[in-house]
Amino acid sequence: MEYISTRGKVGKIGFIDAFMMGLADDGGLLVPSEIPQISADNLKKWQDLSYQELVLEIFSYYTNNEIPQEDLKAMVEASYSTFRDPEVTPVRRFGDDLYLLELFHGPTFAFKDIALQFIGNFYSYVAEKQGKKIHILGATSGDTGASAIQGVKGKEGIKICILFPTGKVSKVQELQMTTVQDDNVLNLSVDGNFDDCQGMIKELFADLDFKSANHLAAINSINFVRILAQTVYYFYSYFQVSKANGGNLGKVNFSVPTGNFGDIFAGYLAKRMGLPVGKLILATNENNILERFIEEGVYMPGDFRITYSPSMDIQVASNFERYLYYVLGEDAEEVSRLMAQFKSEGEISISPDALKLVQSEFAAHGVDGQECLDTISKFKTEHDYLLDPHSACGVAAVYECAEEGEISISLATAHPAKFDEAIRLTGIEQSFPPEIAALFEKPQRQVLVDGKLEDVVAQLEKFYNA
Ligand SMILES: *Cc1c(COP(=O)(O)O)cnc(C)c1O
């Protein structure tokens, strides 16, 4: 398996090179040169594998044999040993046709840990094997930063800098990032929103001289390895639900709380690999650019809104380009043309035929604030289960988009303790897990910067070269 760019000017490169490149050098995103097809036989054989075993099976289609099996196995074991649930991503049943896939049992209580625990170990591995310096640079709407920092704090040969929007992440998210005391961690609190942070990161990664001089490495979902690690739980949860239904399950819907389109793109990839996925239900909040794309075929950012689900407060979804590549029949020239148009005009649209294809694969629902809170309250009353505001968007979208009799798996992307600001508005009082309660006692480390690129660059050069 090799990797190419959605804009056609990179490749073919290997797995480790694709991991290290992050953003493709031509400004596009890396994708596998072809999507591997999983046979029905293998799908059957995989039903009883543990989560870790399944990771190894799925990765074997993508790693190009570049990592000795025992090394990969050791990394996978280490990455998921930090999870609080032995199943890593357990599934819970609610009634006949709704399942929640709990993705928040890792160190920072959000789904980002599933890929980033592995990626932290993988960077460490490459740093050691190739004697490379690795300087991670990432932007976060809250969860990626916390998770990436947990994945690499204190690790030899690695430094990490995270940009987050000042005052636009939850208190617990901020504490998870800023209370880490290791010297290889720098938190930049940026006066702006997530799109500003992500825009600066993409600009710095696209400056190839700066990227190589500073040994930049990516942990955002522009990195294909994040997507790959996230495909695993689509398979794993499908198998659990299938077994709960006597082993003969047909298609299942997945509902995915969406911001950057990374997680739902992993679901799309799982489907293209052969997993029997029905509808991919795209759940958003009021920042609903993607809902409008799926309904109208027009991709155009609206005004940025602050919501109860801050990790989804994103207008420009970086993984959207990966999907666009497939919708346009893997036509890299057309992708390049549209992305250039998006840059100059701030808006693109696709043909009616392409839109039909999109609508055959996705349904979408934008959940407003009141609906989000109502869903949390209703689910608590009916099932005695507390959803976090992101997971509540996923469940609300199932209520809206799934047909009678269809089975849906809704992704629970975070633990409610991370978003108590929203939970309190429902009048529900929760108690914090001890790991989260302990954060409030710790001192914070962060540097405030205004939204100017040159100030961020100055901080980075000082930190990476120290
Ligand atoms: C990151 C995040 C999302 C959105 O995931 P994308 O891959 O960016 O679409 C949803 N919920 C939570 C809790 C998150 O942290």
Explain what the structure shows:
The chain is α/β, with parallel strands linked by helices and 466 residues long. The chain has a domain at 91-107 and 227-424: Rossmann fold, CATH 3.40.50. 46% of the residues lie in helices and 15% in strands. The protein is built from 20 helices and 15 strands. It has helices at residues 15-21, 40-45, 51-60, 69-80, 112-130, 143-152, 171-178, 194-206, 208-213, 224-244, 262-273, 289-296, 320-327, 332-345, 352-361, 369-383, 389-401, 420-425, 434-437, 453-465, and strands spanning 3-5, 30-32, 91-94, 98-102, 134-139, 158-165, 185-190, 216-218, 252-257, 277-284, 298-299, 348-349, 362-366, 408-412, 447-449. The protein has a six-stranded mixed sheet with strand order 3-4-14-9-10-13, with helices on both faces. Helix 11 (262-273) links the parallel strand 9 (252-257) and strand 10 (277-284). Helix 4 (69-80) crosses helix 5 (112-130) and helix 5 (112-130) runs parallel beside helix 6. The protein is globular and about 60 Å long. It starts with a strand and ends with a helix. Bound molecules: pyridoxal-5'-phosphate. Pyridoxal-5'-phosphate (PLP) binds at residues 110, 112, 143, 221, 257-263, 311-312, 390, 413-414. Residues 2-80 form the Threonine synthase N-terminal domain. Its EC number is 4.2.3.1. It is an enzyme of class 4 (lyase). Belongs to the threonine synthase family. The modification N6-(pyridoxal phosphate)lysine is found at residue 112.
Category by helix and strand content: alpha/beta
* Strand percentage: 5-15%
Major β-sheet annotation:
6 strands, mixed
Strand order of the largest sheet: 3-4-14-9-10-13
